[in-house]
Amino acid sequence: MDIKKLINEMTLEEKASLCSGKNLWETKEIERFGIPSITFANGPYGLSKIDCDFYDPVPTTCFPTPTALAATWDVNLAYSVGKAIGEECLAENVNILFGPAVNIQRSPLSGRNFQYFSEDPVLSGEMGAAFINGIQSEGIGACVKYYIGNNQESHRQNINNIIDEQTLNEIYLSNFERVIKNSNPFAVMVAYNKINGIPCTENDYLLIDILRNRWNFDGLVLSDLYAVNSIINSLQAGLDLEFPNSLNNTKQIIEAVLSGTLDSSILDNAIENILNTISKVIKPVKECECTIYDKEKHNDLAREVAEDSIVLLKNKRNLLPLKKDRLKNRKLAIIGKYAKETRCQGDGNSNVIPIMFENAYDEIVKLVGSSVKIYYEKGYNTSKNSEDDNNTLLADARKTACTADIVILFVGTPQYYDKEYADNVNLDLPTDQVKLIKEIGKVQKNLIVVLSNGSPVTISSWAKYADSILETWLLGQAGGGALAEILFGIANPSGKLPTTFPIQLSDTPTYLDYIDSENNLQYKEGPFVGYRYYDKKNINVEFPFGFGLSYTTFKYSNLTLDKDILTDNDTLEIKLKVKNTGKYFGKEIVQLYIKNTDSNILRPEKELKAFTKVSLFPDEEKEVSFLIDTKDFSHYDINTNSWVIESGPYEILIGKSSRDLPLSKNIYVQSPYLPKTNYTRDTLAQDFLINPKTKAIVEPLLSSAAQSITSDTNAQEKLINYFKNIPIGRFTTLSNGTFTEKMLNDLLYSANEA
């Protein structure tokens, strides 16, 4: 396809028509040039291909949701899931997948959190990039979303997120940058919301200055459904394609080009991006129209991901893993509706119809066989329309728990907690489930609680009643079998939390969020999102970011750095040893954080910079290595609008979670960067004394002002210290005219030039 030749031959009407979709999921074709229509579909955790009326979804593999995938901390698994979904796209003639969504889990209340990876941009970016590389290995395009700031569902389509430049770059752009540079997705979907007063679809700073120019993105930029306010403003700001179809906007484009309001070169550039993307994805689908993927193999992968995503939060007296031989002829009670109606995903337009499905109850029965007596009770309702009485269900469950040797209790958030278009109002499990946990805990000393949820929940009100707690997220179609294998020690839990579990809602950084009458939301916590906030405020949490127990134990040792001083553009190799000191095969997630121990600006206590997952047999020891560079020590400087590195001491921290870091080493970083002060007439006099170029002017000024008031040298010294804290502009008055406006302006010019 000679794209530039095509563009020259196309009419204005044909070009304008290509800038919006054919319908909700397809682009328009132009038959006379052989330009085909391509098909999009949702798919953050499995292909969700549906028709234009949102009916007849195609059954596909339902993988664990992105938060669960992130809990594996395994980029290889993320790649494998992306590749498998890419294979299913080929089979279903889908060209581009709307996914992954890599937005930050800013608040645990967001209803869409189950579709996002993490509260941390490094973990989100690395998992997202691997997922995309997997999809695109099959010739299918990935469309990363939602760029940017889609961190809540409330007022999602009209909210104005007010985010300072440091926070914007260090948190909310950082994960997208990592994805763009490490995976080069074919497309980027722009969010509905505004950033600092400008809709993302019309924000040339985000779409041109950053995405195109700073990150060199060369793919397709498209809107979410019905997200465009002004197609002309959007095209001028860097948008290429609007979804869905809009005859009115097509007409506006034609009129704007004819009137000169829209430069035709801007339209041609959008068409070039659209045609380039079509040319990338159309060939593989046509070559593979009869592709049949291995459904069993994909189900096995879904189970592997589910196993590795489960997080062991508590294991008092090593109740887990259960031993089948020790349970012989004993009573095992399985309680809770979610044991038989296992939650596999959240709710929304990305819902997957699983090809096959297994629940935890059936898989446990299958695993233990007839030697163990298993009893089941529903325990609670999840629907207000149910005819079952909760008090009766509770009484029956308590009675069964009394006679059992061990109870596995399944609880979790209802479907309406984890859904698109709505946020939650609290972090608590439903009241009837909390009551059930407490009542069973009073009569049963061996209680295992299994959690199913898409976002953090509070557990402080009931945790003491449980001997073991497993966080299982929303595990996809094969989650039942994965959980059974974890419970009985066939697999060892190796997941770790991709997000912090707070003790209570009021501890969270967004607790005081307020959307005003003009739909403005201030991101008042700044860069202190997730663990960065809890660390800086020294707030206790229920479970920290990166936390997760195992049936075995690991020992960290022998941390070494290949240099003591790191200079500009250097790399730093970090090595350590990890040993499995327990009795089970296990996988450990090794996390690397960096702490700036002497910063001149407000910075997080520490930040995740790298991680890896290592598999170890009992008594096996392996060397783990990381290679980082000076960018990992940088922060975004609002004075220079660039990433800079402060010279000074830093600490390399290695460990098992953000609050369990047994190994540390110091390193000194040398950087040519010098902090720049913007001197104004409101700058304090003492700040001019730090600058060698202005010290010689201001120091005599302070002395002269003090001498004009008193001849007592001791009093003069006190006055000088007082004057240091006065804005420099006031000295035109304080000096009785000896320090003139011209002298002040010359001083400011000299200071800022320096």
Account of the protein in words:
By secondary structure, this protein is α/β, with parallel strands linked by helices. It is 33% helix and 19% strand. It has 23 helices and 29 strands. Strands 10-16-15-14-11-13 form a 6-stranded mixed β-sheet. The protein has a 5-stranded parallel β-sheet with strand order 1-3-4-6-9. Strand 26 (635-637) and strand 27 (642-644) form a beta hairpin. Helix 2 crosses helix 10 (247-259), helix 4 (75-91) packs parallel to helix 5 and helix 5 runs parallel beside helix 7 (174-183). The longest helix is centred in the middle third of the chain and has 24 residues, at 264-287. The protein is globular and about 100 Å long. The mean pLDDT is 94.
Helical stretch count?
A: 23
- Biggest beta sheet attributes: 6 strands, mixed
> In whole angstroms, how far apart are the ends?
55 Å
> What structural class results from the helix and strand content?
alpha/beta
Number of strands: 29
Low-confidence stretches: none
Q: What is the percent of helical residues?
A: 25-40%
User: What shape does the CA trace take?
Assistant: globular
Order of strands, main sheet, comes to 10-16-15-14-11-13
Question: Rg to the nearest angstrom?
Answer: 30 Å
Strand fraction band?
15-25%
Overall mean pLDDT: 94
